[in-house]
Amino acid sequence: MISNNGIYVIAEIGINHNGDLDKAVEMIRRAKEAGCDAVKFQKRTVDIVYSAEELAKPRENVFGTTNGDLKRGLEFGKAEYDRIDAVSREIGIDWFASPWDEPSVDFLMNYDCSFIKIASAMVTDRDFLQYCARAGRPLLVSTGMCDLPMIRKAVATIENAGGRIACLYHCTSTYPTADDEINLLGINSLKEAFPHLPIGFSGHERGILPSVCAAAIGAVSVERHVTLDRSEWGSDQKASLEMEEMAELVAQIRRVEVVRGDGFLRIYKDELPIAEKLRRKDTLKAA
Questions:
Q1: pTM as predicted
Q2: What is the dotted CATH code of the domain comprising 8-278?
């Protein structure tokens, strides 16, 4: 189980810090204030994840004139992650990251993170899945851009390699996701297909309603991208929640935990005087 304390809410900072460590730290603190259980980053070894040709492509950006300048400018190293680790521990919020290559898995294993997150983009890489499984940390696995047979293969690959999936996330990898492609009932499909696994929801939609509904139909974890300002530059900003919205999402999820109850049908104590006042007869008992 991913958490024994209710629905596990993850604020994905990802690369929305735009390469600014102070901004990343502020986002961690704001996520904690919003009531989130964890923050998540993304970790890449740039020269492995991207080809030399891709990195050399012209691309004007705040760090330089090539795509490589942008990718390297967005990437945090040891000094930055040391501070992320220290701040997260200081304020009491979990942190972890999605590695996009094997050296990044090794890098993250230097920290006492509760999980390794496998991004949807990596779910079809058998060698990578096996590498993550053998690293020994519980895995959180997103399933964007996958149909059920693909998800079955990914789960089998991880489990056959000795990995433990702490949560499998229903996900659609469009940014932002249109309402008719969110398909929340996919959560139920994953529950039926993998009854031994906790099922969560990783959303990229506008607003908070779908994520609240995901919690209501049984997602044990909800993950959303966050930002300090949705108008900032960056590929994930428009599919992100600003911190006030994230705080509202957490509040609504906590309310869902209460209102969905335990399913046992009972007469509540507060109903007894209402029944006494409104019911003309109670002849069922004698029938």
A1: 0.95
A2: 3.20.20.70
